[in-house]
């Protein structure tokens, strides 16, 4: 069972697609958001949850005080799960769900449109595809914004395109989380 860890929707359960996604564990989300709150990256943020799956990361951000989140996924089952979760948590006024590829969605964003970007791609996503997504994320992240990449501990560190710079990384079991920022 996957639940929101904390905030206004804390403890509420989420629908997770039966297959095709790898939900971030509650333990990892708790640690991840503890770090993000320490960086003052959540409260009032405009959030982008890429490769959203169930939407757990973006929904957790909104539950913890983010102003707005967009959940992006291309898989129909993931998009349906995200929409069901948004309705169940009564967050439709603060969360949008987009059925599209990450690259197409990012191409439509304006420069500096997002304060916090959460990327939790499938572990088998090619490094070139992640690099392409990060290049687009670098453009749309606001100055002072934070970017998080979650991958397997077996994956190499992401290549941070300018103006993004690495600021931290953490390991939680089989999960490795990297933090980057666009300097203010």
UniProtKB/TrEMBL annotation:
PANTHER family: METHYLTRANSFERASE
EC code(s) of this entry: 2.1.1.171
Gene Ontology molecular functions: 16S rRNA (guanine(966)-N(2))-methyltransferase activity; nucleic acid binding
A Pfam short name: Cons_hypoth95
Organism domain of life: Bacteria
Protein name per UniProt: 16S rRNA (Guanine(966)-N(2))-methyltransferase RsmD
Gene: rsmD
InterPro entries registered for this protein in UniProt: DNA_methylase_N6_adenine_CS, RNA_MeTrfase_RsmD, SAM-dependent_MTases_sf
This protein's UniProt keywords: Methyltransferase, Transferase
Organism field: Cellulomonas shaoxiangyii
């Amino acid at each position: 069972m996957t639940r929101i860890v904390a905030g206004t929707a804390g403890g509420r359960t989420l629908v997770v697609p039966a297959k095709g996604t790898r939900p971030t564990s509650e333990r990892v989300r708790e640690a991840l958001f503890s770090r993000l709150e320490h960086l003052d990256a959540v409260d009032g943020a405009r959030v982008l949850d890429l490769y959203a799956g169930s939407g757990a990361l973006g929904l957790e951000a909104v539950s913890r005080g983010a102003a707005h989140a967009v959940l992006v996924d291309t898989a129909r089952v993931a998009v349906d799960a995200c929409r069901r979760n948004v309705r169940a948590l009564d967050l439709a006024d603060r969360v949008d769900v987009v059925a599209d590829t990450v690259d197409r969605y990012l191409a439509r964003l304006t420069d500096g449109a997002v304060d916090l970007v959460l990327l939790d791609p499938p572990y088998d996503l090619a490094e070139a595809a992640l690099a392409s997504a990060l290049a687009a994320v670098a453009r749309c992240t606001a100055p002072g914004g934070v970017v998080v990449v979650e991958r397997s501990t077996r994956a190499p560190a992401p290549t941070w395109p300018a103006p993004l710079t690495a600021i931290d990384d953490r390991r939680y079991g089989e999960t490795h989380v990297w933090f980057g920022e666009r300097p203010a």
